[in-house]
């Protein structure tokens, strides 16, 4: 058989190589120990001396062409799915995959991380503070006088200590405002996540320990409109672009003007608003039929707070806001009992 | 506080629906938390803020409704009451005008106690107040209407000479109308006569002088008491009443007389009788307060422009008198009932509130970014991410625990705990000095939920004290327990959590944080493994003792824990990376397999090999170990892998062979290892 006719034959055979079996047969036919190439090589000694080199070259060329064809076909066949699983030896893909299982960050940590990163993207920096605080940082410095009804909103755990100044477990993250402002000068844009404590009786929405995020910004020319703008970015990032927001006047000793911020109910979108008076049985369980959900408290930092930390209130203005992380997480994930966060049931934790 | 729609209409014209009214009030800072149709009226449940005691009445809310809706407020005409001829002489002594700036009394004789008329009963019931009798109902009705708490005494049960407003003496007692007996002290203000205490001023009346069915003559009290005194007394005694709530927040002196007169007129109308005495003691004259404010102050704070004309209109509607002090400044006169307005910022808030927060635009401030620096928080975050990647779940547990829980774990620990002064339950007695007790509790909880293996960690502050100094530091704790199935290609093996798992986790964490100088040190007969970082103790690994596991009902399983000071760990962290060129020349690896007695620790063995191997031996690691078939009892099979490398040249076999031989000899001689 001459090389020319072998080539022609290969060209015909190539198109038939549609299975691994066919390809294997093709490989055997040409490249096996007693295959065609081997036979051709074996015939070299029988040739005239002057022909041997040229013929050898031709055979080598043919061999590399065959190898190329096989490699090419192998690629195409590998890309195709095998039509039937190979009996005894192939992969049964229905078996469990093998991987190291990863753990989860607590949903409260995830919520804190999400919220802080929104503010960090806006240019805020993160600061943390101690959980044992002085009465001054927790109350007096924040314009909450002793023996005043405004203290009632902040029932507080005190700790037994021989120290002259009474110490307590911070009832909000706001004392960090005092700490930061006493040690730094404006401009400030700070976000403060952390644990806080209040002696509240435990039920589905109250606990004696929970988490807050405090944010504040101080500079010349900061206005209430800036507070509105910053919080709008935050709320839309966390709850979606469609939500509506409203700022309601409120009272906090450390801010003035103060506002509570509501978002439109993420469950009923306020659709039940007109039914409040009549259909008591059908009230939305999340917003109670009000159509709005309170998510945070905020306001312009009170001039008295600036005086306490030695800032000139005629020069600087600023805003501050604070929110409960558990509340945000409960709304976001649809959790109805705050105690679940601290039971740490793995079946709960693994959902996040 | 509850009020009703039609009750409000007594004082202001309302043309909008109850729902619209509720929304308007809410958006003006007077939050309506509930709205309910009841008995042909609408009950609004209102939450007022502590700075606005003037809103603690129908009258006060109506005044605000007038401001918000632009309607006029209907101030009722003060009733005219004639004083009867047969005058009574009666003395009121106020020991300290500071404690009681104003006390008014009216004596009404010949009243007929009986049930209240239907309209009065209904209004009281709508706002959640039980009807008692006509006189008591009237005092309550006036309290809800005007916000001035009144008290009616049975005059025949009071000494006719007069009464005192004085501090109680320590040890005095009062049997109250419905809060039992109170033990009093000198921080409490009382109304008393020569014989006994009649009432706890501003908080609750006494049983003995209570108006009852037999009462004929009454003394009607309307007064102002010092807010702080009322607050302290009601906190100490735990008695909060509609009366104390208002006195604590402050009463407008102008409503005292108004309320007293209205109550008196209503008593004469509904219970008949005649007023025989009208007395006022300590009447205070206050000069109206004035504030100087910039016309443009609101714009600076709010970022929204309010026209000067509009500004003045809003302020006037709020009852503030305005006068131009200069081109830029306004002088404002504050009405007496607004004792929350003192400075310019208070005025800005009022303008914002009435003009509407919705009218303020949303803008974004220019923020000067701080150059980011690596903070502890970032290291905590990296630590958490590493642990999560290793399959651990983060938990968050309470920082407050019970003394008894800590007691179980504190054995052998020299820690002085920080106690909470006012815990609500025994579960909040102390600030925990370690996270371990809470983690073990978590493990137990999860076993109760039929989990098979529990891998947990927490990062939180722990608290302790030393010689009066309080310490608060960040701790990492890990708890591992149970068995998990590890899937291999051909089978599933059970992997039971042990100390080596925990060691591996800590090694990985140290590697990720770039902590190089750390070691594990046995202590207390291998019961506890200390983790030392840069030569200092930073934490420990151990197994929770059986007696504790029994308490938590954890059976047939071990719980392995670690606690680590993050301050110590982070002090050793090096996060700046330095690249080392990859080796250009091949290494030669020689494995040595041998059998080793169980009691010989491999740590020493590895150190000895390293030392003996000299500079060509780049690394020695254990790559295989085995117990069981083919290995005699009391021994384990071990394979160490020795990697040899010469810096800038190709290492030759002939160089490695003699070292390998000395290492084998070392193992045999010093560690009694048997080559396999």
Your description of this structure?
The complex is a heterodimer of chains A (352) and B (676). By secondary structure, chain A is α+β, with helices and mostly antiparallel strands. Chain A folds into two domains: 3-79; 107-349, Bira Bifunctional Protein, Domain 2 (BirA Bifunctional Protein, domain 2, 2-Layer Sandwich), CATH 3.30.930.10. Chain A has twelve helices and nine strands. Chain A has helices spanning 3-14, 20-31, 36-42, 49-79, 107-121, 135-138, 175-183, 224-239, 303-309, 325-333, 340-343, 346-349; strands at residues 125-126, 132-134, 167-169, 188-197, 209-219, 245-252, 255-264, 292-301, 317-324. In chain A, the strands form two sheets. Chain A has a seven-stranded mixed beta sheet, with helices on both faces. A two-stranded antiparallel ribbon of chain A has the order 2-3. Chain A is elongated, with a radius of gyration of 37 Å. In chain A, 37% of the residues are buried. In chain B, β10 (189-192) and β11 form a beta hairpin. Chain B is elongated. Chain B is an alpha+beta fold and 676 residues long. The longest helix of chain B has 19 residues, at 253-271. Classes of the chains: A alpha+beta (352), B alpha+beta (676).
Helix content of chain A: 25-40%
Number of helices of chain B: 19
For CATH, the homologous superfamily of the largest domain in chain A is named as Bira Bifunctional Protein, Domain 2
Work out the number of β strands of chain A: 9
By CATH, the superfamily of the largest domain in chain B comes out as: Bira Bifunctional Protein, Domain 2
Shape of chain B: elongated
The total tally of domains of chain A equals: 2
Q: Provide the helix percentage of chain B.
A: 25-40%
Number of structurally distinct domains of chain B: 5
SSE string of chain A, helices as H and strands as E: HHHHHEEHEHEEHEEEHEHHH
CATH uppermost class of the largest domain in chain A = Alpha Beta
Widest β-sheet, arrangement of strands of chain A: 1-4-5-9-8-7-6
The rounded Rg of chain A comes to 37 Å
């Amino acid at each position: 058989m001459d090389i020319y006719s072998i080539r022609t034959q290969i060209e015909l055979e190539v198109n038939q190589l549609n299975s691994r079996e066919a390809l294997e047969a093709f490989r055997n036919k040409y490249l096996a120990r007693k295959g065609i190439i081997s036979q051709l090589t074996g015939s070299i000694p029988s040739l005239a001396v002057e022909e041997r080199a040229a013929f050898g070259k031709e055979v080598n060329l043919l061999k590399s062409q065959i190898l190329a064809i096989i490699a090419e076909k192998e690629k195409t066949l590998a890309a195709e799915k095998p039509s039937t699983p190979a009996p005894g030896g192939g992969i049964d893909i229905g078996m469990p995959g093998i991987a190291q299982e990863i753990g989860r960050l607590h949903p409260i940590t995830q919520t804190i991380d999400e919220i802080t990163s929104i503010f960090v993207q806006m240019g805020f920096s993160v600061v943390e503070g101690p959980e044992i605080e002085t009465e001054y940082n927790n109350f007096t410095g924040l314009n909450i006088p002793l023996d005043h009804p405004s203290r009632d909103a902040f029932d507080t755990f005190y700790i037994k200590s021989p120290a002259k100044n009474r110490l307590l477990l911070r009832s909000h993250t706001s004392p960090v405002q005092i700490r930061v402002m006493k040690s730094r000068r404006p401009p400030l844009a700070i976000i403060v996540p952390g644990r806080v404590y209040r002696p509240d009786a435990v039920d589905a929405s109250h606990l004696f320990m929970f988490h807050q995020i405090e944010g504040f910004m101080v500079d010349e020319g900061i206005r209430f409109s800036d507070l509105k703008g910053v919080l709008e970015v935050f709320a839309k990032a966390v709850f979606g672009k469609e939500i509506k927001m409203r700022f309601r006047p409120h009272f906090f000793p450390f801010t003035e003007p103060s506002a509570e911020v509501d978002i439109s109910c993420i469950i009923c979108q306020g659709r039940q608003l007109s039914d409040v008076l009549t259909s008591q049985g059908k009230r939305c369980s999340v917003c109670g039929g009000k159509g709005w959900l309170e998510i945070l408290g905020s306001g312009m930092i009170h001039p008295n707070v600036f005086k306490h930390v030695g800032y000139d209130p005629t020069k600087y203005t600023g805003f501050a806001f604070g929110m409960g992380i558990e509340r945000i997480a409960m709304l976001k994930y649809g959790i109805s009992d705050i105690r679940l966060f601290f039971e740490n049931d793995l079946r709960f934790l693994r959902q996040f | 506080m509850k009020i009703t729609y039609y009750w409000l209409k007594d004082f202001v014209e309302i043309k909008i629906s109850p729902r619209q009214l509720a929304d308007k009030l809410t958006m003006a800072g007077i939050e309506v938390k509930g709205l309910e149709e009841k008995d042909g009226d609408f009950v609004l449940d209102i939450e007022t803020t502590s700075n606005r005691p003037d809103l603690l009445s129908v009258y006060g809310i109506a005044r605000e409704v007038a401001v918000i809706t632009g309607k006029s407020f209907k101030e009722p005409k003060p009733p005219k009451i004639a004083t009867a001829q047969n005058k009574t002489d009666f003395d009121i002594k106020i020991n300290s005008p500071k404690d009681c700036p104003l006390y008014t009394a009216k004596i009404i004789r010949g009243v007929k106690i009986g049930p209240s008329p239907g309209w009065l009963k209904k209004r009281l019931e709508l706002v959640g107040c039980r009807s008692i009798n006509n006189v008591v109902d009237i005092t309550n009705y006036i309290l809800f209407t005007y916000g001035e708490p009144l008290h009616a005494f049975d005059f025949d049960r009071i000494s006719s000479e007069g009464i005192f407003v004085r501090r109680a003496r320590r040890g005095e007692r009062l049997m109250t109308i419905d809060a039992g007996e109170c033990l009093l002290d000198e921080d409490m203000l009382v109304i008393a006569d020569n014989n006994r205490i009649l009432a706890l001023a501003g908080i609750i009346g006494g049983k003995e002088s209570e108006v009852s069915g037999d009462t004929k003559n009454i003394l009607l009290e309307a007064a102002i008491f010092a807010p702080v005194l009322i607050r302290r007394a009601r906190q100490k005694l735990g008695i909060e009443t509609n009366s104390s709530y208002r006195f604590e927040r402050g009463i407008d002196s102008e409503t005292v007389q108004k309320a007293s007169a209205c109550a008196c007129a209503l008593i004469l109308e509904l219970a008949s009788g005649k007023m025989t005495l009208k007395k006022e003691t300590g009447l205070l004259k206050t000069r109206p307060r004035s504030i100087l404010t910039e016309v443009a102050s609101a714009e600076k704070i709010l970022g929204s422009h309010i026209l000067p004309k509009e500004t003045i209109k809003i302020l006037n509607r709020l009852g503030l008198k305005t006068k131009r002090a200069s081109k830029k400044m306004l002088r404002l006169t504050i009405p007496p009932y607004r004792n929350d307005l003192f400075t310019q910022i208070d005025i800005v808030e009022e303008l914002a509130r009435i003009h509407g927060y919705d009218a303020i635009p949303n803008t974004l401030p220019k923020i000067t970014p701080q150059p980011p620096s690596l903070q502890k928080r970032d290291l905590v975050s990296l630590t958490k991410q590493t642990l999560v990647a290793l399959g651990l779940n983060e938990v968050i547990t309470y920082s407050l625990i019970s003394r008894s829980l800590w007691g179980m774990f504190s054995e052998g620990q020299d820690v002085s705990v920080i106690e909470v002064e006012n815990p609500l339950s025994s579960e909040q007695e102390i600030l925990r000095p370690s996270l371990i007790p809470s983690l073990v509790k978590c493990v137990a909880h999860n076993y109760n939920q039929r989990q098979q293996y529990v891998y947990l960690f927490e990062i939180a502050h722990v608290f302790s004290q030393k010689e009066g100094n309080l310490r608060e530091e960040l701790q990492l704790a890990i708890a591992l327990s149970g068995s998990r199935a590890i899937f291999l290609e051909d089978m599933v093996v059970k992997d039971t959590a042990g100390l080596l798992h925990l060691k591996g986790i800590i090694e990985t964490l140290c590697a990720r944080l770039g902590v190089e100088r750390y070691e594990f040190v046995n202590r207390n007969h291998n019961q506890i493994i200390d983790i030392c970082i840069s030569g200092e103790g930073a934490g420990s690994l151990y197994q929770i003792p059986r007696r504790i596991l029994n308490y938590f009902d954890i059976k047939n399983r071990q719980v392995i824990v670690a606690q680590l000071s993050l301050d110590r760990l982070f002090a050793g962290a090096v996060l700046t990376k330095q690249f080392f060129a990859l080796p250009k020349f091949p290494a030669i690896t020689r494995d040595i397999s041998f059998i080793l007695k169980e009691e010989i620790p491999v740590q020493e063995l590895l150190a000895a090999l390293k030392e003996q191997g000299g500079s060509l031996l780049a690394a020695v690691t254990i790559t295989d170990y085995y117990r069981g078939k083919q290995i005699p009892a009391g021994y384990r099979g071990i394979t160490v892998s020795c990697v040899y490398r010469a810096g800038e040249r190709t290492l030759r076999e002939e160089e490695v062979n003699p070292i390998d031989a000395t290492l084998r000899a070392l193992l045999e001689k010093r560690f009694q290892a048997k080559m396999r």
